[in-house]
Amino acid sequence: MLQSSNLSTxxxxxxxxxxxxxxxxxxxxxxxxxxxxxxxxxxVPSLRDITIANLFFENxxxxxxxxELAEKRLSADVINFSASSxxxxxxxxxxxxVNNILAMQVDFxxxxxxxxxxxxxxxxRVNAQIINAGDGTHEHPTQALLDAFSIxxxxxxxxxxxxxxxxxxxxxxxxxxxxxxxxxxxAQVALCAPLSLLPRNIxxxxxxxxxxxxxxxxxxxxxxxxxxxxxxxxxxxxxSIREYQLRYGITMERLETLNNIPLIMHPGPINRGVxxxxxxxDSKYSLILNQVENGVAVRMAVLYLxxxxxxxx
Length: 313
Ligand code: CP
Description:
This protein is α/β, with parallel strands linked by helices. It is built from eleven helices and nine strands. It is globular. The structure holds phosphoric acid mono(formamide)ester.
């Protein structure tokens, strides 16, 4: 195994706070842990005696299970909390809930919450290391790390690679974290979406906007396709799902008109037949299940490095 050197942070609140060296260190450990979890004995004792609470105040399949598996592969003790079955329904505050869980001698909090900034808010008020597992429309750092790692596995290096993010950028923490992560690794990032689904100040992040989906796909080495997040919308942002599917949906017919077909990614959950067709999602161009597989090793690397950091600080 590699010698651990340090991350520049003791919490993972967002990709914005990481240096390129941090990201490369996480990727070095991700490679090591990916080897470990492909062995017959998939467990290492690295986090024995560390207790981790996974606090999910918003629905999740991939992130919640992937963190839990990563923690168990590292031999941590794990407790899981889901808001719908908790005493939050009886009026307890977020800080009180977290502090009560920490009173049970918990070392790490993995937090998913619908409010942007929730992870930072908690990190300033409680005595534990915090990993942001997605906070509203703000950031989803481990998703961006696993996305970038999955691209790097295919191309060796992200420098000057062209990645287009397609879809509901306005409501997407995945898009924001991906932009920060890919740019820190030297990639070029473009966005393609209806203008109503692009944040107004998006150019300040140094991204190009390509309005025509066919031009965007032709430009790209990789297209990361996002779901339309109806649950975060309080009004209509486009005329109809059918219209969206026709103008922005990724279908095999559309891909087959291109000179070079990009690799296709999606953070999940996918809405088949809306932003992506089943044929594309299940095709040889799709990295969707590679992303999910890499999520466990990326999260092992993050947990391992942050735990080392916590012990050193
Ligand atoms: N990509 C992602 O965050 O999926 P979940 O919402 O299922 O965790």
